[in-house]
Amino acid sequence: MNMVDPCSCSPSTSTNKSSPSITTTTITDLDADSLFHCASFLSLHDISNLSLTCKYLNRVSYSDSIWFSLFRERWPQQLPSCFSQTSSVREAYLARHTALQQFKFVDPLVADFYTNANPNNLVGFNNNDIIVSQGALINVMKIDGVLNLRESLVHLNGHNAKITCMRLFPLNETSLFRSETQGNENVLVTSSCDHSIRLWWKGSCQRCFRGHNGPVSTLSDKLLGDSIGKVFASGGVDSTVRLWSLNSSGKRGEHALRATLYGHEKPVVHMSVAGHKTSLLVSMSRDSKVRVWDTNVSSSAVRSSCCVGMTSVPGAPVGMKCHESLLYVAAGSSVVAIDLRTMQKAFDAPMNQPKLHSLEIMPSKSLICMGGIGRAMLWDIRKSCDTQKAEPITELDGHIGAVTFLHMDPYKVVTGGPEDPYINVWEVDTGTQTNSLSCCPPNGSSSRRGCSAMAVKGCRMVTASCGVSHGLLRFRDFTNATCQVSSNESEFASKFWGPQSCSDSEESD
Question: Of 130, 230, 250, 309, which sits with the fewest C-beta atoms within 10 Å of its C-beta?
């Protein structure tokens, strides 16, 4: 037998022989049934990307067989034909997904947890965890354990006074525990009236940061800096802003303090990181004076020269958020947008009430929502910037007392307050009310007030209320709900939209 050494073949000969099979066979040569079968194994995100590749694959990605497979995988107990009289399974899938995100159902999975009578101050989601602060104590509950009726409560002890702020930062951005970093894990950072800041991971305190000369009142909403040296900021009653490194070693956080920023004359109450430049930090003090700091200007431990902008707004501070180069400040009875590049006011949105109580923004929808007494108001940012005089697009009314809790996402607005026993849900595009959910026990006798804390993430929501003898945490999950809120229930209709808008909304459901 004659053996041929593969290396003896010339490159040009090998290339010419193999090139016809490469150039003449493409994915579009597969028949439609084969493509449908292959695409049925893709995720929703991958199918969306597939639709953007070419016209042929775009038609494939709209196939009923693919969307029926997705529908059956996510909601195996409900067929598309039973849900909506739409023209395609894809439309039925998207309609159901939107309805679930907007809480348009009366049968979510509900789990109640009773705590002691101390108020639940802060509550939030961290992947599969519910995090609740109660005075100086942090309680962490596993959602899987909640749903399976297992004991899943973990107490995080360490602070000696009331917790004032909780933030979640991505673990892979902190330069901590690199060998154990997995997926989308977060670290929890908390500030307290005991003058300290603590970093928690895997159920224990990993760092303790000390340096403020009084209670720590707030933390930055994001990390500052580049991937080499990430820092977070804290503001305190001592009127200082302090920068802390997440690269420091030692459990006590030795040498973690990178800078102390002086300039405020009153306690710092709000902070936010600019969107267009991650080294810019905006802080606001109790006297409603705003300072912009460039944290890359200097590396000295004590400095005030890195202040690159100042302004003030009338009224008591309520909230503050940055998006791109705009800063939205809620104070007194209005929301002011400030361009951080020029420090000039972009627009002013008045509430037409003596006092604001909350602020939330949805940049992807160009919307601002602000809470007042008995109502919340939605504003269109683009119209406000064009006219220099903002006009609300709708009012979300029917609340009891102050609307102090706001959540906005691309699908819904969720509102609540300490005097209102109900949480209200609204369509973000139309302002139509979709649901009203109780945050108190069924008999209502153990709760003397409304909502004391609220967190919403996708199809899930958790509310906290405090009673005379105990507190209540109520967890709701609409992911597998099947019974929709009746469109004939007039109490969920918005009086600010005409019949045509309402009928359009019902048809889209």
Answer: 250
Q: Measured in whole angstroms, how far is the alpha carbon of residue 194 from the centre of its chain?
A: 28
How do residues 266-297 score in pLDDT, each as one tens digit?
A: 999 999 999 999 899 999 999 999 999 998 86
What is the distance between the alpha carbons of residues 400 and 98, in angstroms, rounded to a whole number?
28
CB of 463 within 8 A of CB of 471? no
**The token pair that represents 31 in the structure block:** 């028949």
Long-range CB contacts for residues 443-447, cutoff 8 Å, separation at least 24: 446/470, 446/472, 447/421, 447/472
d(CA 67, CA 64): 5
Please name the residue ranges forming H helices in 43-185: 44-50, 55-61, 64-74, 80-83, 89-101, 143-147
**What are the distances in angstroms from CA 219 to CA 270, 374, 434, 487?**
8, 30, 34, 43
- Measured from the Cβ of residue 486, the count of other Cβ atoms closer than 10 Å reads 9
pTM: predicted TM-score of the whole model, two decimal places: 0.83
Three-state DSSP at 208 gives strand
Residue with tokens 């969920």: 492
By DSSP bridging, strand 129-134 and strand 137-142 are antiparallel
- Answer positive or negative: Cα dihedral of 92, 95, 99, 100: positive
Q: Alpha-carbon dihedral of residues 333, 337, 343, 345, nearest 10 degrees?
A: -70
Indicate the domain borders of the chain. 30-101
Share of the chain above pLDDT 90, in %: 49
Q: How many CA atoms lie within 13 A of 503 on its CB side?
A: 3
Tokens standing for residue 153: 């409560």
Please, are residues 92 and 74 in contact by the beta-carbon 8 Å criterion? Answer: no
Q: What is the CATH number of domain 30-101?
A: 1.20.1280
Measured CA to CA in angstroms, residue 494 lies from 34, 416, 437, 485 at distances of 48, 17, 16, 15
Where is average pLDDT lowest: 93-97, 424-428, 489-493? 489-493
Question: What's the helix, strand, coil split of the chain in %, to 5?
Answer: 20, 40, 40
Q: What is 145-165 written as a DSSP string?
A: HHHTT---EEEE---SS-EEE
